[in-house]
Design a protein that fits this description.
Blueprint (H helix, E strand, L loop, with lengths): L1 E10 L2 E11 L4 E5 L6 H8 L7 E6 L2 E2 L4 H7 L1 E4 L11 H8 L5 H14 L1 H5 L10 H13 L5 E5 L7 H16 L3 E5 L3 H7 L2 E6 L2 E7 H5 L2 H7 L5
Amino acid sequence: MLQVKGLVVSYGRIEALHGVDLEVPDGQMVSVIGSNGAGKTTLLNAISGLLRPKSGSIVLDGRPLPSAAHLTVAAGIVQIPEGRKVFSSLTVDENLTMGAYRAHRTQSREIRIRIYDMFPILKERSHQAAGTLSGGEQQMLSIGRGLMSSPKIMLLDEPSLGLAPMVVRQIFALIREINQRGMTVVLVEQNARTALALAHYAYVLENGRVVLKGTGSDLARNPQVEAAYLGGKG
C-alpha cells in the first residue's frame, strides 16, 4: 500500500500542497481530480521523487520512499508524464529499452513481448521513430515504457490530454485492463467523469487540499462534484 500523510510541497515561498493525505491499496485504481492548479501533478511529482516535500511522509509497504526519482523507480513506482514525453528521435523499440534500464536482459525481453501483445500497433511500429507516431500511439508507448520497469504502482498524469475522443476511449480501456491484470494505478485526469467511473476510490483536490474523498461511484453522485466537474447544475 502507498500512503501519503500530511504532505506539504512548496515552490520557493509558494506552498502548493497543504497537508495532503492519500492512501492507495494494492491492486486498486485511485483517481485524483480537480481543476487546473489544484496540485494534482505536484502530488504525483512528489510521490515519484521529482519534487522534495517540505514536510509529511510518503510510505510504500511500510517503508519511506526515497526522495529521488531513480530510487523511486527502483522501489516500484513509475510515472507516466503529462504530454507523453517520448524520446522522439529514438525508435519505439529503443524507447522501450530506455524504460528497461534496470531490468535483466532476459526479463526485459519477456516484458517487451507482453507489451507488444498488449499494444500490437507498437509492434508494427517498432522500428519507427517515436516522434512520427500519432498522439494515441505515443501515449501507448509512454505507458509501455513505464511497464518495462515492472512497477508495483503506475502514476498516470492526464493520459487523455490532447487526444481525440475515440482514442481516449481506447486509452482508458487499456488502463482498465492494466489495472485488472493486478497493477496498482494512481490516475490524475481532466476527464473527471471517466476518472471516477474507473476508480475504486477517488480524491478531489482544491487549492492543494483534499476537500472530498470516497468511492468513485459515490463521488460521481455527489452534488458538489457534479456541479464543479461533471457539468451538472448543482
